[in-house]
Design a protein that fits this description.
Blueprint (H helix, E strand, L loop, with lengths): L13 H12 L3 H4 L1 H8 L2 H28 L6 H9 L1 H34 L7 H15 L4 H29 L19 H12 L15 H30 L2 H7 L3 H46 L6 H4 L10 H17 L2 H29 L13 H20 L1 H25 L4
Helix pairs in contact: 1-8, 1-10, 1-12, 3-4, 3-9, 3-11, 4-9, 4-10, 4-15, 4-16, 5-6, 5-15, 6-7, 6-12, 6-14, 6-15, 6-17, 7-12, 7-14, 8-10, 8-12, 12-14, 15-16, 15-17
Pfam families: AA_permease_2 (PF13520)
Membrane topology: Multi-pass membrane protein
Subcellular location: Membrane
Length: 441
């Protein structure tokens, strides 16, 4: 293996990075979470507020990470940030959590949702859902076997493609909807938990994925400038889009009807507004949206595997760090993620896995948020990007992270113990790997 050429290529520009941020965030969440957010918020006004608040928390987090990422523009993202801030052990655990649990589970969940829509679209039985999901993962994985330009181009295409049905839903709801988006209450109060916090938590699941662009820092042409701009503009665009979709949906479909329809709300809206053929077209757009999200995650997670393997932090690091001579793509790392995601999809419930992963990754988000105060004191070099309204923006990000952690602990303490245990198991594995390579931790 030619170690001198075993490096990733810096070829991603601002528009590619921006499309990856938007494409990675906008997937199934906004289309499938409307009913659950409304159910917990108990009114249309509070549901809209929940989406806005979730977006603001995410934007504060993005502004905080943007300053940190601009000072550490390397492949690996959160894994590298945590290591530089808190040492090798914490950094390894951040990377281990993402490559073994969080990444594969999120990919499996998105592919699972996409397969449900695809099977319904073609009138196939539920037995086809796992095969369709596996095919989708393999297809997107194959795209990312080539140069990162191919995956980025696919991300741009799918991002543009997903904006078409989104624009259609927003326009039809805002201009042809007959309901007042504000002030609608739920008649079946007993169905709702009555917890506004849980409603906001549900929206945060929909916003998650924005930080994955940081994993591509080593492949951007000018990461110190591109990374902060892509994160800030990307999250801001998604916040506006999510708010408009929620308002449009509530104007076109009454709140109680949204609760009754559940995950079928968007399809009902499309079919009612545009007819049977129009509904099919919107469904295709949503499927494209999910493919784009799948692609964004398939681009980013193998880069964490690659970054860890380059440091001999994983078993079989020699193979996992391999990149193709021409396209500079981490193909073995991509295969690794594909296999784990497929296994999780076949043997586990991806929905619960992804929910628990949000808790786990927010532990490391919080560490990163606190890291901005450490860098301000220890790093005397000029900052390529400074978080505005410091220290209030990172404080809001920290409070939002604590909110996520407390909410999830209350909702699923057993699952939390399980996932914390999976993260801790990484420590003896790191010890054995380092012993094999004759290295110290």
């Amino acid at each position: 293996m030619d170690k001198t050429n075993n490096e990733l290529k810096r070829s991603l520009g601002f528009w590619s990075a921006l499309s990856i941020v938007i494409g990675t965030i906008i997937g199934s969440g906004i289309f499938f979470k409307q009913a659950s957010v409304l159910e917990n918020a108990q009114s249309s006004t509070m549901a809209i507020l929940a989406w806005i608040l979730g977006g603001i928390i995410t934007l504060m987090a993005g502004l905080t990470i943007a300053e940190i990422g601009a000072q550490m523009p390397y492949t690996g993202g959160l894994y590298i940030y945590i290591e530089n801030l808190y040492g090798r052990i914490c950094g390894f655990l951040a990377g281990w959590m993402q490559v073994v649990v969080y990444g594969p589970a999120i990919i499996a969940a998105v592919a699972g949702f996409m397969s449900i829509l695809t099977a319904n679209f073609f009138g196939l039985s539920s037995a086809w859902r796992i095969p369709i999901a596996v095919i989708a993962i393999l297809f997107v994985g194959l795209i990312n076997f080539f140069s990162n330009k191919v995956g980025a181009a696919f991300s741009i295409i799918t991002t543009i493609g997903k904006l078409v049905p989104i624009a259609a839903i927003i326009i039809i709801g805002l201009f042809w909807g007959e309901n007042n988006a504000l002030g609608q209450t739920i008649s079946e109060i007993h169905r709702a938990s009555g917890n506004f916090g849980v409603a906001v938590l549900s929206t945060l699941f929909g916003y998650d994925g924005w930080i994955l662009i940081a994993n591509l820092g080593g492949e951007m042409k000018n990461p110190k400038k591109i990374l902060p701009k892509a994160i800030i503009f990307g999250i801001s665009a998604v916040l506006i889009i999510y708010t408009l979709i929620t308002i449009a949906t509530l104007r076109f479909v009454p709140a109680n009807e949204i609760l009754r329809l559940g995950e079928n709300t968007t399809s009902y809206l499309a079919t009612t507004a545009f007819g049977k053929i129009g509904g099919k077209l919107i469904t295709i757009g949503i499927i494209v949206s999910m493919l784009g999200t799948l692609n964004g995650k398939m681009i980013t997670f193998p880069r964490i595997v690659y970054a860890m393997a380059k440091r001999h932090d994983l078993p079989f690091s020699r193979f996992l760090s391999y990149v193709t001579p021409k396209g500079k793509s981490p193909v073995v790392a991509t295969l690794f993620i594909i296999v784990l995601a497929t296994v999780m999809m076949i043997f586990f419930d991806p929905d619960r896995l992804s929910d628990l992963c949000i808790f786990t990754i927010y532990i490391f988000y919080l560490l990163a948020f606190f890291g901005i105060f450490i860098l301000r004191k220890t790093n005397e070099a000029p900052r390529p990007f400074s978080t505005p309204l410091y220290p209030w923006v990172p404080i809001i990000a920290i409070l939002g992270g604590l909110f996520v952690e407390i909410s999830e602990i209350v909702n699923d303490p057993q699952g939390i113990l399980l996932f914390v245990g999976i993260v801790i198991i990484g420590l003896p594995i790191l010890y054995l790997v380092k012993k094999y390579y004759g290295e110290k931790i």
